[in-house]
Predict the 3D structure of the following.
Amino acid sequence: MSKLFGRQLSRRTFLGGAAAAGLGLTACGGNNNANNTSGTEQKGEAGGGTISAGAAYSTQNYDPSSTSSALALGVNWQVSEGLYGMNYHDYHTFNELATADPQQVDDTTFEVSIRKEAKFSDGAAVTADDVVESFKRATAEKNIYVSMLTPIASIEKKDDATVTIKTNVPNFSLLKERLSIVRVVPASSNQEDMKKMPVGSGPWMYKTISDNTLDLEPNPNYNGATPAKDKALHYDILKDPTARLTAQTDGTTLAMEMVPADAIDQLKNAGCTVDTVQGFGVRFLMYNVTKAPWDNVKVRQAVLYALDTDKMISNALSGQAEAATCYLPSSFSNYHKAATVYTHDTDKAKSLIKDSGITPGEVVLRTTDNEQVKNMATQVKNDLDALGFTVTIQTDTSPATYSAIDAADGSWDMLLAPGDPSCFGGDTDLLLNWWYGDNIWMKTRCPWGASDEWKKLHELMDKALTQSGADQQSTWNECFDIIAENVPLYPVLFAKTSTASWSEKPNGNGVALQGFKGIGTTGMSFIDVNTVTQK
């Protein structure tokens, strides 16, 4: 472990929000005032012992068993533990409450022992009952985690310090990765209370939560391998990018997530280090396949061929993205170029429209209020208007946007929105299941789940879970091709994520950091401060 402010920091400590923003089940709102921090410690003066960060998202639900909030997912990783944790630089797992790897009893049965004398921040012992109840909450009907945890059939208590895990997949090789999704909370806890201020067994505990700030302090009952050694973690909730930028440039925050692409040079010139990483930060287009013409695959394909994605990346994202050539970005280990790749081809788009037999008409393009998406929407409108459509853009917050879509009243045609399920893990099956699983996306939002193509996709996904190596990759390649051909919901591009930190003391004063490293997921700094030291 390394040191910050002269104190050791946990290897599993992260700062910032999380990538689930824009996934449709996040809470939004909050004060955008950049000057809501007071006192010298929050300004990063030397010896303060407080790590300060500018967060890009807000929420009203912090419950580790149900939240998909951008902010809560990131901060809860300081507070709650799973049986296993995950390092978001390379997606490797490590023991948290578990004392060792799962011990295999038979093809579908495993046992995991819980850390001796582990306690929650309220002093209560962590037992098998807490693990069992946390899994039940995470897999409750309509929970956002259900499709990701489907390979796990059950978790049961063997004794107070041991749980027995049954899987639906023989010799399931990704068990630790999926178990890391389940954050353990007290079985006796009230879920409404957990939404407001969770209790966990991690190295940090919540001190205060408000609409504008979060403050954490070390958990005095933590007995794991990576105790917090600093005095406090402080988050300013600054959804407005200008407010976040101001706080970082004046030294109010030591780290800033979601640096706007057009502000990178400004921060570098001010003396900040900006770490930019390619990740799974999707900006996707989804069609209302319940109505014409979007039930026609040729029309869906025509739209993607009509988009000038290169111009979009240049103008709306200042070059900080790559065009989609597969469901995965090219930086991911299981990437394989899809059989169908959508490059800007107006003639191809017009030909597909002609072959479809439809006449382009009025289109309602819904978007969330993500700044990049709003900028992209202008290009989408221009390109589709040139194809003969008349596009009306309707922008709203994520909750309002998805509430309207979930109403299934047919009042929309396409959705342009951000998302990034890699905050839950990086394995291909999990990433496929986020949008294409047997869940709200395929049942309600984009009900492609009734199609023969979806059924074929899931046969292949289930097959891949039982495979490994080249055979598994080959099956996943077939999955990529099916999705790329049918495009009911498909990436337009993958944005890069930029995180800023002070590597030199702002204005010659205060604290600077070295060894700071961001992570390539949209809106999810999940900044690992293990390598950060005071400079």
